[in-house]
Write a structure and sequence with these properties.
Number of strands: 11
Shape: globular
Oligomer: single chain
Helix content: 25-40%
Number of domains: 1
Distance between the termini: 41 Å
Length: 220
Amino acid sequence: MKRELKQTKDGSYTWFLPELQEHYHSVHGALQESSHVFIEAGLRHWWNLHGNQIPHILEVGLGSGLNLGLSLEEAHARQQSICYTALEPFPPEVSELALIQKDQHWAQTLPQPLYLNPGAWRKAHLLEFCWLQKSLTEWHQEGCSFDLIYFDAFAPEKQAELWTEEVFSMLYERAKPGAVWVSYCAKGAVKRALKAAGWHVEALPGPPGKREMTRAIKQA
């Protein structure tokens, strides 16, 4: 899968996929989007709700490692550990990662190399990490439960099979009581599918360039 490196409006970088005509992150600011959606509305919100517990995070779409890197920055700032499982069926090349991570503060604490030994757990300071070379639809038989879900798949127009009530029901079953699900996507059909799967859904102000984002909670 060919990836083209693009600079976004906040100075950070993303990839563009000509095959899908899709960017990995917002062109209005990749770093701002991830910080707003996954850290502020996701990880910080979960810690505010659950105190000094260790969250088990699931990321759908590891990509460049941006969300993991920002999560680790937050963990280091709080001196709190995180456990992190990531799905990425199309891992980038080492050379591609080197370019997108170059001189980026969020990349400094990432496990290196990022894509090593799929399915194996790796431990570092404040981190337990595992990535799987599988899509969400391939992975549903594996047993685990999660506190926080970063749903960072490509848009519903590009990966419609991942934004369904069936998928959200599977994630609901795998989520612990009080779990938080967050995504940049705010489409009405997505929110309706989440509600039908049992999630309590709320619309939040979006990052630069987007009016809204979505957060969902598995109520205890």
